Backbone:
């Protein structure tokens, strides 16, 4: 089994992908091959509309952090969490996730990094202080971000999160994170 120890980021500037990396082993080329498809997902009308609607709520960061604290403390899924996994936007995320066997988790964030919808429950509600959001939202410019490769002991495979901006009229209005099972991606690419 390959040993991936990596820090990898991909920055989208216009239509040019610029790769920067500090790594022991490279993230498989197959991840960069599917990046254009994932970037397209950031313009999916269902996802764009859901992010626009949540952004229009005008939640303050204090309100988001309060929801985040309640989310983290919940011992089982709350009705709010269940709704985020079963609404029309979550169904669209599930459709995208099921398009390939190597997609394992998708979640959508608003312009502050708060969850909008997801296929699996995340450990927290607010992603706004994490690279998957900050590097992807990029102050409204939008960028593609590939996170660190990690071994998931429950799945017994190497996973990476790829995040793409949700774009509207050339501006990032949110972000979408896609979990990718690298072992399955490699198998499918053979």
Residues:
């Amino acid at each position: 089994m390959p040993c991936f120890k990596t820090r990898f980021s991909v920055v989208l500037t216009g239509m040019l992908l610029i790769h920067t990396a500090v790594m022991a082993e490279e993230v498989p080329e197959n991840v960069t091959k599917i990046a254009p498809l994932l970037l397209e997902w950031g313009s999916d009308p269902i996802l764009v509309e859901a992010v626009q609607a949540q952004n229009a709520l005008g939640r303050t960061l204090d309100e988001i952090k309060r929801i985040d604290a309640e989310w983290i403390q919940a011992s089982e899924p709350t009705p709010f969490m269940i709704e985020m996994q079963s609404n029309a936007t979550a169904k669209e995320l599930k459709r995208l996730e099921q398009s390939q066997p190597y997609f394992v988790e998708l979640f959508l964030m608003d312009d502050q990094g708060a969850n909008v919808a997801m296929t699996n429950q995340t450990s927290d509600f607010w992603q706004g202080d994490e690279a998957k959001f900050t590097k992807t939202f990029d102050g409204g410019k939008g960028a593609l971000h590939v996170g660190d490769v990690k071994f998931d002991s429950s799945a017994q495979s190497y996973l990476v999160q790829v995040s793409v901006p949700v774009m509207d009229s050339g501006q990032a209005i949110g972000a979408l994170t896609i979990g990718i099972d690298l072992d399955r991606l490699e198998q499918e690419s053979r």
